[in-house]
Amino acid sequence: MFIRTENFSQYIRLYPVVSVLIALNIFIYIATGLPFTFSRYWYYLGVGQNGLISSGEWWRLFTPMFLHAGLMHLLFNMFSLFVFGPELERVAGKARFLTIYMLSGIFANIAAFFLADADFTHVGASGAIFGIFGAFGALVYYTKKAFPQLRQIILPIIVISVIMTFLQPNINVIGHIVGLIVGFLIGLSYFHPKRIISWR
């Protein structure tokens, strides 16, 4: 289910939305990490900083989803998207998957703005990634009897991810939890129990 066996071309053809998101995040990471003044300028222009959002720079509720603080930060998020994104894109469809991803990330950033202090600064796609986990949680809720294997795999992943959120330093806890909740709520609206789902 979450084991990727496709080659490069098959992966891109079967999961175009996930592929574009991964490529976009990697491209932006490289572009904003180049040793040029304008590269760092574009990075800091997109960072989620609550004080600057309060002053009217509302695009910072969106742009942090595509910025990462370091290589390991990028790799962890993109690996999660690479592994878990395809199955959700296949089940939900391209448009609905993108909706889950984007709204989870945006609402995670909005929550961080309203619930954290004015000095709070954050970047990363984690809120959107947790939205994917939340959507799978909704799928488990509707299909726990039909697909027990999904429940056995995804629930421990969600629990471990939430626990690690509180144990690791410099984590946007608000973004993770709100992203998870938003993904779950959207998933509840998408994955009606009468909908027939064919897993591989």
TrEMBL record:
MF terms in GO: peptidase activity
Keywords: Hydrolase, Membrane, Protease, Transmembrane, Transmembrane helix
Major place of residence: membrane
GO biological process: proteolysis
Transmembrane segments: 12-38, 58-85, 97-116, 122-143, 150-167, 173-191
Alphabetical list of SUPFAM superfamilies matching this protein: Rhomboid-like
Annotated membrane topology: Multi-pass membrane protein
Enzyme Commission no: 3.4.21.-
Pfam families, alphabetized: Rhomboid
Sequence ranges assigned to domain Peptidase S54 rhomboid in this UniProt record: 56-191
Location of this chain's protein in the cell: Membrane
Similarity comment: family membership: Belongs to the peptidase S54 family.
PANTHER family cross-referenced by the UniProt entry: PRESENILIN-ASSOCIATED RHOMBOID-LIKE PROTEIN, MITOCHONDRIAL, RHOMBOID PROTEASE
Protein name: Rhomboid family intramembrane serine protease
Species for this entry: Sporosarcina contaminans
